[in-house]
Amino acid sequence: MNKYIALAGSFILYVTLNFSIQSCTSDIKSKNTIESSKVSNTILADTKGGAGGEIIKVTNLKSKGEGSFRNALSQDGPRIIVFEVGGVIDLEKENITINKPYVTIAGQTAPSPGITLIRGGISIATHDVIVRHLKVRPGDAGEPKKSGWEVDGIATSGAGGNTYNILIDHNSVTWATDENISASGLRLFGPDSTSRRVTISNNLIAEGLSNSTHSDGEHSKGTLIHDHCENIVVTRNLYAHNVNRNPYYKTAATGIIANNLIYNPGNIAIHTYWVENEWEGYPEPPLAKISIVGNVLVPGPDTQMGGRYNGAFVSADHAELYVKDNQIDSGNNANISMTSGPFNEIKNPEIWDDKMEILNTDEVKKYVLSSAGARPADRDPIDRRIITSVINKEGEWLTARKKLEGTLILNRCIEN
Predict the structure, then answer these.
(1) Cα separation of 279 and 287, whole Å?
(2) Which of 175, 264, 182, 244 is CA-nearest to residue 213?
(3) How many CB atoms lie within 10 A of CB 416?
(4) CA-closest candidate to residue 246, choices 224, 216, 219, 231
């Protein structure tokens, strides 16, 4: 009898998850329509992840070994990873690498308070991956300042041309010492060597550590999309308390930045640039091509627009941009312009997806603050604090010291 109950439960779980996966972009409802210069263009990640595959259960919070999250990801074939435990997984300074395709990580299946990864991040180096409802908080891992501990929260790595159709949705990614979320690859060798068709949606991307363990010192960064990464969609995320890269697309990258709420950046919010000295010995790359629609910028206590970036919401060079319906909630800060830099602005987007539907700008704050991040109906104290700081227009950039204290507090809460 127990065997049949277990089978029935697994079937119900599969049906529920499969429905969720198939409708992963169905809640992106539009009040606006965008007329593309192309009749049809598919940009959004189009994947079912591990739907139809084996259901693999994570049964403990160990970094490695049987029953661990890392072990579940190492299995072959289509698979849906569910959690019978909730709490903190200490990665012990060893990132998790996903290098086998067709997998769905269903963090929403964990009991409260969900799954949090510390002292490491996730690297995706394959195709057809869905990551949902995880909290990833690498922290400084106890390393000294400028020591070279440089960790992304969640990163896609396109080396070999095998990283595509990735959905990173409803996660809370904070306290990274490199980028909180990034997409990259062998960027000097064209789009087939980098990440492509990656959708980053409904995430809380916040508090990249400032003046922490990165060798550059100051390196509080939200999202980096490397050169030549194609069809990268960044939509309906909350960016809060990252000094810059909220997000940053480098030259020859293509994609859509839509309906994001950006709070308390430094002197720049959305930007795209060609770093010329990185291309020495290679032909001049193509322009970045990006559609930037319906985003909202809210300056915070640390925001100091001006200087190199001329105090603009969108700053760019070596780029072709479609810019529409973005909003600056500047309050008393009247020195923020919408755009700056020598880029080509176009009237109709070349980079668009006919399934992409856009919120009116005045709806973005409410939607993002209620929906972004892991398990929004069951947020932990750290995510609640960040959301509250945006609502109250307070908070600050975090240093390594403050971040480490937060990690220790979280561990004590779980253990007790």
Answers:
(1) 13
(2) 175
(3) 5
(4) 224
How many residues can be counted in the chain? 416
Q: Under 8 Å CB-to-CB from 148, ≥6 apart: which residues?
A: 213, 214, 215
Q: How far is CA 74 from the centre of its chain?
A: 23
CA distance 408 to 403: 9
- Distance CA(42)–CA(56), nearest Å, equals 31
Strand partners, 290: 255, 321
Give residue 189's region: left, alpha or beta (phi > 0; psi -120 to 50).
alpha
CB 329 within 8 A of CB 295: no
Q: Are 225 and 249 in contact (CB under 8 A)?
A: yes
Find, among 98, 140, 144, 97, the residue nearest to 118 by Cα.
Answer: 140
Give the number of other Cβ atoms within 10 Å of residue 354's Cβ: 15
Q: Are residues 152 and 186 in contact, defined by beta-carbon separation less than 8 angstroms?
A: no
Is the Cβ–Cβ distance between 302 and 266 less than 8 Å?
yes
Q: What band does 377 get if pLDDT is binned at 50, 70 and 90?
A: very high
pLDDT tens sequence across 99-141: 999 999 999 999 999 999 999 999 999 999 999 999 999 998 8
Q: How far apart are CA 374 and CA 387, in angstroms?
A: 12
